[in-house]
């Protein structure tokens, strides 16, 4: 997916949000950050994906703001908050006629926890209210059929908080007899999950966790490590979580189950699905 002009205002909002997280009261810092980002606009290559450009932006912002992990507190809060709800979610799955479906449903709704989108959604409310299953009508049966003949599953993780809900999906896949590998980002970027988050929420106790090596809020293939790319080639089933991974991989690779929430007008136009829609699609 290429970056569009409509992505640029979103980048500006993200930069301002990052500056306000570091110091909510320092208007001079906020202005400095916006001017720094604005100065980069003429040199941006809009033929690359939004996550690729965001990686450039956040590297520059981190240096400007003097921190390696701008969203560290946001991630810790999200992980802690979601873990409080796990017992109830596990009870839901235990009573489900199709626990894999419900684990996937919860994992997709968890993609609402995204610091890179202009609108923050009430993920907890959505967990209880979103019962529409049309998102699964076409590609979920294919997924079940695919799993029946596959052993290895590679999940491309996305955000902190969301990774807690992904543990439910991993548990179910492992219970079904699959060897699951979960991939996190290589370095802190936005509120994306890293190896530290995987340890914090117990993902490392459930399955093998690896890093893609990327410093971008999406699996930008040219930023991945050779080992990760080899794992990607060898995986029998690939589940890509999150809109950022969709933006980075759409048009770059096929044979992937994309699972995410539509959270911006650009992706809504591309997919033909309204914002807030759950998507589970094999491409």
TrEMBL record:
Spell out the InterPro entries in the cross-references. ARMT-1-like_metal-bd_sf (IPR036075), ARMT1-like_metal-bd (IPR002791), PH1575-like (IPR014444)
UniProt-recorded name of the protein: Damage-control phosphatase ARMT1-like metal-binding domain-containing protein
A Pfam family this chain is assigned to: ARMT1-like_dom
Start and end residues of each Damage-control phosphatase ARMT1-like metal-binding domain: 5-276
Tell me which domain of life the UniProt entry assigns to the organism this sequence originates from: Bacteria
SUPFAM superfamilies referenced in this protein's UniProt entry, alphabetically: AF1104-like
């Amino acid at each position: 997916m290429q970056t569009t002009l409509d992505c640029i205002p979103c980048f500006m909002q993200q930069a301002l949000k990052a500056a306000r997280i570091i110091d909510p009261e320092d208007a001079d810092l906020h202005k400095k950050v916006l001017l720094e980002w604005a100065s980069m606009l003429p040199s941006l290559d809009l033929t690359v994906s939004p996550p690729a450009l965001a990686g450039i932006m956040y590297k520059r912002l981190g240096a400007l703001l003097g921190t390696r992990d701008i969203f560290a507190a946001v991630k810790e809060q999200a992980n802690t908050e979601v873990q409080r709800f796990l017992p109830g979610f596990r009870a839901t799955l235990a009573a489900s006629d199709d626990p894999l479906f419900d684990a996937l449903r919860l994992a997709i709704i968890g993609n609402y926890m995204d610091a890179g989108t202009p609108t923050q959604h009430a993920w907890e409310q959505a967990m209880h209210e979103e019962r529409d299953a049309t998102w699964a009508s076409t590609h979920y049966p294919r997924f079940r059929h695919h799993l029946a003949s596959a052993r290895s599953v590679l999940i491309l993780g996305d955000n902190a908080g969301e990774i807690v809900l992904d543990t439910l999906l991993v548990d179910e896949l492992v219970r079904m007899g699959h060897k699951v590998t979960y991939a996190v980002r290589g370095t802190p970027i936005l509120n994306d999950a890293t190896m530290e988050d995987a340890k914090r929420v117990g993902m490392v106790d459930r399955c093998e966790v690896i890093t893609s090596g990327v410093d971008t809020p999406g699996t930008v293939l040219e930023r991945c490590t050779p080992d990760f790319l080899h794992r990607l080639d060898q995986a029998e089933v690939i589940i890509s979580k999150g809109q950022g991974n969709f933006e980075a991989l759409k048009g770059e690779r096929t044979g992937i189950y994309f699972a995410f929430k539509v959270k911006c007008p650009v992706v809504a136009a591309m997919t033909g699905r309204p914002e807030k829609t759950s998507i589970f699609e094999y491409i």
